[in-house]
Write a structure and sequence with these properties.
The chain is of the alpha+beta class. The protein has eight helices and four strands. The chain has one domain: NADH Oxidase. It binds flavin mononucleotide.
Amino acid sequence: MSDRSAPTDHPVLPAIAARWSPRSYLPEAVDDATLRQVLEAGRWAASAYNEQPWAYLVGRKDADAAGHERILSCLVEFNQGWAKAAPVLMVACFRQNNAKGQPNRWAAYDAGQASSAMAIQAAALGLQLHQMAGFDAAKARAALALPDDVEPIAAMALGKPGPASALPEALAAREVAPRARKPAAEIVFGAGWGTAL
Ligand SMILES: Cc1cc2nc3c(=O)[nH]c(=O)nc-3n(C[C@H](O)[C@H](O)[C@H](O)COP(=O)(O)O)c2cc1C
């Protein structure tokens, strides 16, 4: 597997540069301690009012093949094509209401932070976590018995990245394409929209 480290403009933590979203995964299982380390990183994410509105449903191919298959069946066809190889599939959710039963406007933001922490932790451990919007939320709601106020927001694949050559041609090309980001000047401003920092 080629080095996919981000060509950052400024030095960042090694795990942040090492994180990327592979579509080729080795069949190797993620052992329980490592999986729980990844989930623990999410547990310690910041959240508005410390509501911790996130929840993760986990399907492990080695320990719970039916659960893995259940999550896989919720993905769109494109994602199923590559994600079936990943040893762990997850669905990230958030509770829409806070502890007082009022809508939590920051719940999706907080769940994203937890998932991001998990992705970085995974990279630090030599794994990669690939997040997916491409799944059927209604199907996930039914298949995973989600309570009414719980919203599935992303699916995820976790495991050790495999060789690009294991993928169909079009996906293999994307797997080794240069990593790119918008220039910082397009997304970072001074204290006025569009002004330079
Ligand atoms: C919320 C979210 C949804 C995504 N949905 C999909 C998806 O459905 N299928 C897919 O192959 N990749 C998906 N991705 C991966 C992105 O395409 C990827 O993060 C982006 O191209 C940047 O690449 P990098 O993560 O390797 O830096 C998603 C990523 C995020 C954060």
